[in-house]
Amino acid sequence: MSTEKPLPVIDHDSAPYWEAAREGRLDIPLCGDCGKHHFYPRAICPHCHSDNLKFDTVSGRGEVHTFTIARRPAGPAFADDVPYVVALIELEEGPRMMSRVQTDDPESVRIGAKVEVTFVKASDEVTFPYFRMT
Amino acid sequence: MKNGRDPVIVGLADAPIEDGKFVTKASVLGHAALVAKAAVEEAGLKLSDVDGLLTAGMWGVPGPGQLPTVTLGEYLNIMPTFVDGTNIGGSAFEAHVAHAAMALREGYCEVALIVYSSDQKSLRSRNLGGRPSVLSMQHETPYGMPTPVGGYAMAAQRHMHEYGSTSENLAEIAVATRKWAQLNPAATRRDPLTVDDVMSSMMISEPLHLLDCCLVTDGAGAIVMTTAERAKDLKTKPIAVKGYGEAHTHWAVGEMPDLARLLPAQKAGENAMKMAGVTHSDIDVVEVYDSFTITVLLTLEALGFCKIGEGGDFVSGQRTAPGGAFPMNTNGGGLSALHPGMYGMFLLIEASRQLRGDCGDRQVAGAETALVHGTGGTLSSGATVILQKD
Questions:
Q1: What single-letter DSSP state applies at residue B18?
Q2: Which residues of B touch A122 (CB under 8 A)?
């Protein structure tokens, strides 16, 4: 059983997103037809199914839509992190994304808490957008 | 109006387990074959009569499990002319009943066999690790979401936030389900359980405790369906498949349209009840997927047994326990009887046995109509079946 933390297998849909994260930006797709952002990145807009998409740098601000405090790890690779907060963040621009809330006090996290993005390097290829409460 | 090709269930079988593990020494396919044989023979049929084969599972992937009906057909040495390997998670078997019903009505097959087998407990193959970090899961697995419990915990957290439901409400479900298990000699966990026990059990993924989570066991089950006409010559009392519905929305938890509402269950339930021509007051016994206590709460709301947000009140005071107003999960459920990973097979078997009147101490008196609802993935899919004593 692997104790290496899983890294994303980057594909053509997601490459610009992960590349931006490496450079400290949160870039997600914006539809040129319906004007909505979406996440995770797709080749067509999940709202209107247009393929007229471009990556757009968003604010990195949002709020905790829901979360869990993991008291047991997601497999051995995460054993040293326990307890940790996995949270679904609703970005100001609308889409939700799964991430971590970085905090010394997991019990302080609440639904509705305001957060902003912070970038955490995992490897030469991968930097994760985590969030911190503001 | 009755029709000779109306679909009915005529055979049922499940494999014996002890301490959550298979008693018989056989491979995962061997157990599939043994329950398949038992279910067709119960009906007075032979495996060679089977021309419709439906299965879903997690075995043999990558490998022969990638073509599960082909591999199982090979093992049984049959040549089915209708197959369905639909896999939408634990609700797959409710969808299989629907698909077999359509095939039977259409004359596309005469005897349909639905089979499931899992030796996950014996293999010790489960931990809370996520799915391989590819495609949509590259955006969830790396964050360490305990899987699948984390997604259910997030739904529970959101439901508590929006509607004020409590851990105590959830614990009531686990306790009521255990009381049913105590009436079922085949159930894995039969020791007494209190609301305090559930709430003081180890926290796994807040707000869900260990005893909010289903068991991890082995298990195998099979269902045989045929037409009402063919059933006249068979050995068992047929159970009619009166209605069915299915829907799914997402697998990645971040894509769940509404974390506090189970939209697939709402859609599947509406369609199934409409097809069957029944309303909530017609249902005598309810078997719903209980991967986690929150699954039950969300399902009861979505199916319309209570209003959205009122599930906590609905299950309080042990209303779903033996002797309560709302008999539910009468075998002890995934929480206390068995949960081999894709539990929906056993909801169907229990509902059919209740309608046959075969349930001994846990028999619901006068059970004529049952609602079965499976949930799969991470609150991803839902499939409902309405069964009726013929």
A1: E
A2: 142
